[in-house]
Amino acid sequence: MRETDFISGFAKGLSVIETFDETRPRLSISDVSKTTGLDRATARRCLLTLAELGYADYDGKFFALTPKILRLGHAYLAATPLPTLVQPFLDQLSERTGQSASASVLDGTDIVYIARAAQKRVMSINLTPGSRLPAYCASMGRVLLAALPETDARAILSRSELKANTPNTLTKPDEIIAELQRVRAQGYALIDQELELGLCSIAVPLENDRGRVVAALNIGAPAASVPASALAERYLPALFEAKAALKQVLR
Amino acid sequence: MRETDFISGFAKGLSVIETFDETRPRLSISDVSKTTGLDRATARRCLLTLAELGYADYDGKFFALTPKILRLGHAYLAATPLPTLVQPFLDQLSERTGQSASASVLDGTDIVYIARAAQKRVMSINLTPGSRLPAYCASMGRVLLAALPETDARAILSRSELKANTPNTLTKPDEIIAELQRVRAQGYALIDQELELGLCSIAVPLENDRGRVVAALNIGAPAASVPASALAERYLPALFEAKAALKQVLR
DNA sequence: GCTGTTTTGTGCGATATATGAACAAAAGTC
DNA sequence: GACTTTTGTTCATATATCGCACAAAACAGC
Fold first, then answer.
1. Which residue's CA is nearest to the C1' of nucleotide C10?
2. Is the ipTM of this complex over 0.85?
3. Is the pLDDT of residue B128 over 80?
4. Quick one: how far is CA A219 from the chain centroid?
5. Contact across the interface for B21 and A79, Cβ inside 8 Å
6. Of A128, B60, B84, B174, whose Cβ has the fewest other Cβ atoms within 10 Å?
């Protein structure tokens, strides 16, 4: 791509949107300037543009995003067949097992939830389509990383902040790579309270009709009611059934 | 705002993102140019910028959004306290009633779901945070419109495509305005299969501690299991309880 | 395989935007 | 209350983008 085919003002604006998160819901011009590295004048122009278009509110001091921003993410969810196709299978899985079922894809070092059928909340955080979790310690992350060439997986791990969320969390790249090999061999990934104490989950890769891994499917359960050792026996058949059925419809 | 405080390249890029939807998941440069009215050269530069940043894929012919786009909408969901605050109440409502509970806000002529606790699917469409429904025929839309001055509500209705989704759907602005007055007076809105046959719902406005309506809360149920006439009696107490509790915590 | 049609890529002048310094206004410190 | 620091805004100008016009390529119908 040529230099002139890149609209830097657009790129800067997008980076301004991404600056907002749970720890920074309301930002001043200088806040945005500092976080993004943009000049204060430029940050201001980006923010005023967002406000003018209705994507942000401005009270004279702080900017906050408005729900109109959801149109952007929704454009993806609505435009991509994958979420719509997997949803009925998630519903069925969730109903048959009494647990939460989700589907996700990889984006950088994170998995991104694209669809979910939730049962009673067991996690401390609320997962919805668009939610992100670090790939290295999530069951779907493991199967998605396992689907990559090892060098790619290593590259992602090297960019990840490998922190021990619980005593169980694998944090050494070599440990995780070894686990990915096991995942690849057995065709599923099992997580026993690596992300959060009390939560375990099992995931399988979703392949399209040409055998390429396009997403992951999982079932999460409270460790208290279903020990990790019982996950495979109890839920793997249903997961594999869904996987096989989806393989027909994913292009 | 001054002319020079507006970054038109950014605004154009955002309009390009919004061009993608369920009917147009994959778009060529000319498609985008036609739909947005942007010059082809400009549409191309916006799309190439999106691709360069990883927000879109490009196969040399068509562009498609990638899950990275979800970061943008997620910035709002994560950054806004409202979804997080209401979620536990939705979970509780959903569990107590055995039905789906949701919260939404108004964006233009649509309501936008910001949180949801779903039970078994009864609607033909899958609602998740970010999903949109026309306000005029949804129970939450009715309470949100009822909270506006009548001239504002009329303005929104005049911009809405008032179509009869079912034989029950109110489509005449005056009918709807009259219904809004009833909703305002009784403090809740009841929808009996106006959006979709077989689905009815009841909604109440959510107020912050200063009494301003900031969102709506609803419970949806299959008409077959819960006739619309029974909705108020059965679910209104729980909805009002949640509303009262949330009034304390919403600022 | 030719012709008409549509789509895509590119160079260029006119125009809009980004930049950083300078100033103004708040906010914080002592 | 005077000083320092932070924040917001404005302005001139160097730079990048826009949209047109043209060229090239892909496509469709015969």
1. B41
2. yes
3. yes
4. 15
5. yes
6. B60
